[in-house]
Structures are given as structure tokens and as C-alpha cells.
């Protein structure tokens, strides 16, 4: 095992390939609480491949210490770190991420905004309902609006406020994709969600991780 102090220096090396190797080595070898320290001092964006690599290294080491990844969902960090943190809080179902996501949900980057909406859908907490309904009324991006509808369908199970909101959308949204999403969301919001449905929804969100990493 390479001395941790030496690896830390390499994690700050000017060569990006050396940094990547040092970061990957750290995540793969060490069992210390400081293995995620490079999230804090990284200033250059991760490549899509690096995001996927780090994500896989983290989740495939169940015995390694886990951080509260929500602390990196913050505008002080580059989008690729925020994106990786969103993947991790969704994977570990860290509800501490809800407030940080709420505070950043109006971020200008539409791909990041959509990913945050998806993450709220996966975390599936009622306190996000009003946030998403308010965002829908301000949102201009079609894909983000459809993601809001999908998430509300799951969060709003047996929730009269959500049902009314979705029913009202049927009178204002006439595009086929919107109406399809609204009708599916209404079906989910007004019926008892089965364990199987919840698993399917979690799978649908989680399987987008590599795709999101390719486009961010």
C-alpha cells in the first residue's frame, strides 16, 4: 500500500491523468474517513468517465466509510462534483440532500436542474411537493417539466393537493408527451403504490446515471 501522504500530493498534481489515478487508488484502497477529501479541493471538472469510475468505486466498496454526500450539493463546487454527489445521495437514499437540492433547484443549467428533480423523485419526500409545483409554474424547459410531473406522481400518493394540481394541468397542457406523463402521474397519485411500482421507479431513475454523466 502506498503511503497516504504521497497519494494526497498526487491528488493535487497538475497532470489530470495522475490526479485520476491517485483518486481512484484512494477510493479503491483506503478505509479512512478522508478518502472523499478530493471532492473539496478539486477545481477542475471531472470528465464523464471519471464520474462513472468514482461512482462505481464508491458503491462497490460496501465496507468503506461513507460520507454525507449532500454537503457537496452546493454552488461552491463545480457541476461535475454536484452531479456525482446527486448520484450518490440517490443511491444511498440520503434525505439530508433534500434541503441542499431545494436551495439549488433553480440552477441555470437545465441538465443539472433536471437531474436534481429526478433525485428528489427518488428520495420521494413529501416536503418536496410544494417546491416542485412552484418550480413547474416557472419552468420553461419541457424535459424538466415532464420530470416534475413524474416525480409528483410518486410523491403525491393519496395527496389531494397533488391530484388537483395534475388534474388542472390536463386543462392547460395539450402536448401529447405532457398529457401522457400527467395521466400516468395521476394514475400513480390516486392509487396505492405497490412495492413493485416503487422498485420500477427507482430502477428507472438509477439507470439514467451513466447517461446523465455523458451529457453533463
Automatic annotation (TrEMBL):
InterPro entries named in the record: ARM-like, ARM-type_fold
Any Pfam family the entry gives: HEAT_2
Gene3D superfamilies referenced in this protein's UniProt entry, alphabetically: Leucine-rich Repeat Variant
Protein name: HEAT repeats family protein
Amino acid at each position: 500500500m502506498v503511503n497516504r501522504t504521497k497519494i494526497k500530493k498526487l491528488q493535487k498534481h497538475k497532470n489530470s491523468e495522475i490526479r485520476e489515478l491517485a483518486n481512484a487508488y484512494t477510493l479503491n484502497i483506503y478505509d479512512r474517513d478522508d478518502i472523499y477529501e478530493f471532492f473539496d479541493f478539486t477545481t477542475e471538472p471531472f470528465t464523464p468517465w471519471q464520474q462513472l469510475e468514482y461512482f462505481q468505486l464508491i458503491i462497490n466498496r460496501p465496507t468503506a466509510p461513507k460520507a454525507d454526500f449532500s454537503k457537496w450539493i452546493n454552488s461552491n463546487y463545480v457541476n461535475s462534483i454536484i452531479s456525482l454527489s446527486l448520484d450518490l445521495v440517490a443511491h444511498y437514499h440520503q434525505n439530508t440532500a433534500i434541503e441542499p437540492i431545494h436551495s439549488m433547484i433553480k440552477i441555470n443549467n437545465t441538465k443539472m436542474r433536471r437531474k436534481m428533480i429526478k433525485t428528489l423523485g427518488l428520495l420521494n419526500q413529501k416536503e418536496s411537493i410544494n417546491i416542485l409545483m412552484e418550480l413547474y409554474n416557472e419552468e420553461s424547459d419541457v424535459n424538466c417539466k415532464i420530470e416534475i410531473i413524474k416525480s409528483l406522481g410518486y410523491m403525491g400518493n393519496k395527496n389531494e393537493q397533488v391530484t388537483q394540481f395534475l388534474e388542472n394541468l390536463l386543462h392547460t397542457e395539450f402536448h401529447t408527451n405532457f398529457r401522457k406523463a400527467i395521466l400516468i402521474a395521476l394514475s400513480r397519485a390516486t392509487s396505492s403504490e405497490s412495492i413493485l411500482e416503487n422498485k420500477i421507479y427507482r430502477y428507472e431513475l438509477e439507470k439514467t446515471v451513466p447517461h446523465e454523466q455523458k451529457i453533463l
